[in-house]
Specification:
Length: 116
């Protein structure tokens, strides 16, 4: 039975390419990943604030929801379908990072707890 995974991709634009990077990611890349990898949803974020001294290494985050048997299968889906997606020099592939997290419990929604 497939499990739910959240894929987090931290990225940044190639120097001087922020407008092209944002246009590519928002109007091409997210939809192509969903269509080719078969993932359920995607959304982008830009770092607005942080707490702690560690510091976020890159300013942009894309999150995807995927269904698979394992985290490794999620990465395999991503790699096997990469050739089906347009690539952009505006995305700094050298610094981009990917993490796959497996759900460990049910989703909690505001006001869904009768004891609250």
């Amino acid at each position: 039975m497939p499990k739910t995974f959240i894929v987090h991709v931290l990225s940044e634009p190639t120097e001087g390419q922020e407008d092209a990077f944002n246009d590519y990611y928002e109007h091409t890349h997210l939809d192509e990943v969903l269509a080719t990898a078969g993932w359920a949803r995607a959304q982008r974020f830009k770092l607005g604030a942080q707490l702690g001294t560690q510091g976020c290494p890159l300013p942009y985050l894309a999150t995807y929801e995927a269904q698979a048997e394992s985290a490794e299968e999620v990465l395999e889906q991503m790699a096997a379908t990469r050739h089906l997606r347009q690539q952009s020099a505006a995305l700094n592939k050298r610094t981009a990072r990917v993490w796959v997290f497996e759900a460990t419990g049910p989703e909690h929604l505001r006001n869904s707890n009768p004891h609250a």
